[in-house]
Amino acid sequence: MKFTNRVTIICIAFNHEKWVEKAMISVLLQDFEDRELIIVDNGSKDRTPDIIKEWVKNNTDKLPVTAIYKSKSVPYCQLFNEVLSQVESQFAVDLSGDDFLYANHLSLSIAKLQQTPTAAFVFSDAMILDENGEQSTFYEREDYKELAEKTLANDMYETLIRRSYISAPTVVFSIDILKQVGGYDATLSYEDFDVQLRLVRDFSIVFSEHVGVLKRKHGDSLSASQYQRYKSQMLPSTLRVCEKIREMNRNSREEAALSERVLFELKHALWSANFEVAQGFANLADEMNIKGIQFSLYKLWLRVRLDISWLYVKLT
């Protein structure tokens, strides 16, 4: 049975004992009534499962909530798809156990989606909170007009190839469309780069001019390990997404955007001494017939495997 206008918040937590209760409270405090929470502990080694159990016990009369406890960690994209397959709502939110939804996020986001029923998702602005307590928005206020224009012009695909442009924690998906494209790619270590591209390739999206999510930036977050020295978990997935982009591209502008992205990722793979995946980016660049002194220098760097990752750590 399909529940029209209902939104399911899928919150996956792993070692989030400091923040998971606030994440669940943020769902409870939403001013959008027709919502449910599915909270998943993904094999945490800290007190996260105990905190979830206690909170669920005390709040099941206030909010439809389902708790799932994994004895061992499951790859994130695979786990999200498993949960998504059981959901019968119209909309879905992928909430990390260390993030926080502002109270009007669902109501404002879903109002936008209802205005554009064919949209694959809506996104908004986010407040980024670092470990020092400093806050800043993901976008500048003057960017809002450009964001709205890009979504209307349907040219977000090329933009996303070049750079990360959408605040992933703010996304509210249309479940039917997300399932239509197969959900997340379960072979990847992270989801947003790939799923956003696959959705904007063939569907419209919309932007809502509100700050919807508090996103915590800390050393234990997955994004912090994007260019981790020697053993990045994310770079191999980024390479795979770039290979998929090449298959999806339809014109020379998109190929140029991919060339720019491949060289960017190759540079960071070299700086962080992830030489094996750097070779993969170099091979892809060769297949794309990328030329120029920049790529030649990168290939020389790769050939001698010069490790200056200690400097990269200091600079970043």
Plain-language structure description:
The chain has 316 residues and is an alpha/beta fold. Helices cover 45% and strands 19% of the residues. Helix 6 packs antiparallel against helix 8 (192-202). The chain is globular. The chain has two domains: 3-220, Spore Coat Polysaccharide Biosynthesis Protein SpsA, Chain A, CATH 3.90.550.10; 226-315, no CATH class.
Protein traits:
single chain, 316 residues, Spore Coat Polysaccharide Biosynthesis Protein SpsA, Chain A, 2 domains, 9-stranded mixed sheet, 9 strands, globular, Glyco_trans_2-like, transferase
Briefly say what this structure is.
The protein has helices spanning 20-28, 48-59, 76-84, 105-115, 144-153, 156-162, 175-180, 192-202, 235-248, 252-271, 275-287, 293-304, 309-315, and strands at residues 3-13, 35-42, 65-70, 89-96, 100-101, 121-129, 135-137, 172-174, 206-216.
Write the topology of this structure:
Blueprint: E1 3-13, H1 20-28, E2 35-42, H2 48-59, E3 65-70, H3 76-84, E4 89-96, E5 100-101, H4 105-115, E6 121-129, E7 135-137, H5 144-153, H6 156-162, E8 172-174, H7 175-180, H8 192-202, E9 206-216, H9 235-248, H10 252-271, H11 275-287, H12 293-304, H13 309-315
Parallel strand pairs: 1-2, 1-4, 2-3, 6-9
Antiparallel strand pairs: 4-8, 5-9, 6-7, 6-8
Helix pairs in contact: 6-8, 6-10, 8-9, 9-10, 9-11, 10-11, 10-12, 11-12
InterPro entries: Glyco_trans_2-like, Glycosyltransf_2, Nucleotide-diphossugar_trans
Protein name: Glycosyltransferase family 2 protein
Organism: Algoriphagus aquimarinus
